Amino acid sequence: MSYFNVRVYGLLINDANQLLVSDEQSGGMSFSKFPGGGVEYGEGLIDALKREFMEECEAEIEIISHFYTTDFFEKSSFNDSQIISIYYLVRETGPLKLNYKTRVFDFDPDTLQSFRWINLTDLHEDDVTFRTDKTAVSLLLSLIAEDAD
Predict the structure, then answer these.
(1) Which fold has domain 3-148?
(2) Which keywords appear in this protein's UniProt record, sorted alphabetically (predicted)?
(3) For the CA atoms of the chain, what is the radius of gyration?
């Protein structure tokens, strides 16, 4: 049975103009994405994103603004659902307590998730795996280029 799979993600840019990316392994696949995940039944988008940041990053965040919502068909890489992804610009409300990596998929023992900062000047669509995230990166790079003009 096909269904909609609503996902929510946070674009977190630090004071050094770096974007937070999550490297993960699930379902026999390795991928890079933004922190966030699925919206649970009965949950709003903002509450879901805050919950996901607590679960993944042990961090409280605040929403700056809506950034992008998927506007094309995207089938899930993991099941028979249609992905609808909503992206927000976010900021941390306190220091992040993560063990940052510098290499892709550099997992600690007994974990299949790690986090990296990518300098905005080095950011490229290929830094993330999924089409929806690549679109968000492309839009972010366009905004950065506009601001530079």
Answers:
(1) Nucleoside Triphosphate Pyrophosphohydrolase (3.90.79)
(2) Hydrolase
(3) 15
Q: What is the sign of the dihedral through the CA atoms of 126, 16, 91 and 143?
A: negative
CA distance 69 to 85: 6
Amino acid at 121: T
The closest of 62, 57, 64 to 93, measured between CA atoms, is 62
Tokens of 80: 């028979």
Tokens encoding 111: 């974990």
Q: Which residues pair with 141 in a beta bridge?
A: none
Distance CA 149, CA 46 (A): 32
Q: From CA 149, how far away is CA 146, in angstroms rounded? A: 5
> How confident is the model over 5-53, as pLDDT tens digits?
999 999 999 999 999 999 999 888 999 999 999 999 999 999 999 999 9
Residue in 83, 110, 130, 96 with CA at minimum distance from that of residue 20: 96
pLDDT of residue 27: 84
List the chain domain ranges.
Answer: 3-148
Residue 115 β-bridge partners: 22, 100
